Amino acid sequence: MLLLRQQRFYRGAGELLYAREGVRDAIDVLATDIRGFAVADTARLLADSAMEMFTSIGASVLCQLTSVTEAGLAPAARTGNSLASFTTQPDTGDLALFYVAGNTDSISWERHRIVSYGTRSLATTCPPTSGFSRPADLAAGLEGYGLTLETPLSANVRAGAPVRFIRRGRYSLYRAADGEWYLGYRRCNALGPSACGAIQPLSGPYRSYSGDRNATGLLFEYFDEHGTALVPSSSPLDLARVDLTVRAESRQHLMIEGRGSTPADSAKASIAIRNR
Known about the structure:
Elements: H1 2-36, E1 43-47, E2 50-67, E3 70-73, E4 85-86, E5 95-99, E6 109-121, H2 122-125, H3 135-139, E7 143-149, E8 162-175, E9 181-187, E10 200-206, E11 218-223, E12 229-230, E13 241-249, E14 254-256, E15 259-261, E16 264-272
Antiparallel strand pairs: 1-2, 2-3, 2-4, 2-8, 3-7, 5-6, 5-8, 6-7, 8-9, 9-10, 11-12, 11-13, 13-16, 14-15
C-alpha cells in the first residue's frame, strides 16, 4: 500500500510539472515576441485567443548597394562582436527595413519586401574596402549576405544604414487532430490582406477554448497607454500592453487518497510593448 501511494504521488507530481512546463513555455515564447514587436510595423488584434504581429528576426548593416534593388550586408562573425545577428534567416516574403538618413530628428525606415536572401562571397557583398569587414574576415572564410528587394531603395538609404528584418506571423490557440488544444504559429504574407500558411504546434496541450475568460486555455487582453481595454476592431497603433493568461491541465485524471484529481496550473503575464 505504501509503495502504491508513493507511485501515485510521483505520478501526480510529474503531471503537475508537465502542466507547469507548458504554461511557462507559452509565456516565454509569446512574451518575447510581443515585447519586441514594433507597433509601427502594425499588428492585428484578432481575438481573445489569437494575435497577429510582425516580429524581429534579425538585424544587420548595409555594406554597399550593387543596384537599387540589390544590397550587400555585413557578415556575422563566428566569435566576438558582429554587425549582423539573426534568430532565423530571412527569406522570400519577409520585410527588410532600412534606416533613412535625413536632415530631421525624426526616425524613418523604408520598408521593402524581400525577393531573395542568402550567403554570398564576402568579396562581393561586404569587402574590406567598405569599412564594415576586415581582411582577416576574408581570410577566415566569412561570408556576407546578399539581398534582393522587390522595390528600389531611395537615394537616402546609404552604406552604413542599419537594416532590420521582420516577419509576419499569427499565434493562436487551436485544436489539433488528436483532440487536444495547443499554442500554434502560422507564418503569414508580409504585405496586403492577411493570408497565412499551415499551423505549427509550439507548446501544449492547454485547456480548451472557452468563451468564459476565466476558464479558456489561452487569453489575450489588449490595453492602450491609459489602461483602457481595446477590442479586436481597435487600431493596433493604440496598443501599449497585452495581458496574457495561459491555463494547462494534465491529460491524466488521477486518484489520490481516494479522491479524483486533474493536475493543472495557470499563469498571467502583463507585457508592455517596448517599440511604440
